[in-house]
Predict the structure.
Amino acid sequence: MTAPASSAPPSPAPAPYRGAPERHPRRPPLPFDPGTDPETVELTGPVFGPSDVGDLDADLTRQHPGVPLGERIIVTGRVRDRAGRPVRGQLVEIWQANAAGRYAHRQDRNPAPADPNFTGAGRCRTDDHGRYAFTTIRPGAYPLPGERTWRPAHIHFSFFGSAFTQRLVTQMYFPGDPLLPYDEILASVPDPADRHRLVATYDHARSLPAGPLAYRWDVVLDGPSATWTEEGR
Ligand SMILES: [Fe+2]
């Protein structure tokens, strides 16, 4: 017995996803030799270029219509290699908590208030002298889960090198923070000199009379004076 023909109108063709054209690659694919090991592919693959970083990306206080709460600060520094040479065109990324010590992340369980005008993420590229500069809000300290201790104020940093496999991740601390001796992560760095290098210095000459306070934090990517990173050296 044959089923009766349906009287329902045919289903309309699915509407195209509006975001698809925006996410579709605009450049032709790069040639790829399947015999090449993944590590080598990463070293020759595409990375962030000058056009991928906008001028406002380095100012975390201007990413929303309103002004974020907290103390506005400037963080600058130079990125060098083991020989002291400036590392130019280096992608530097930062992420941090807001002034109350809360991240703009749904998994952050800190009951401190969120700030709708502060995302806490920024990036820039080093100039020809290896310098970077961010304008941001001084992050607040926050308690670790389980009430073990508090984390001192800090800013997470990432340096991408010339390929994704060369990424280095570390943290910058603020001078004079009374929580520094109690930080579990800082305490895990065995060499006191390495711990000292993770703490920025207050830059009074750069702190304008009515402007944001400035901090300076220089970074060495490799060698015996290398800045400590979370993956080790
Ligand atoms: Fe953190």
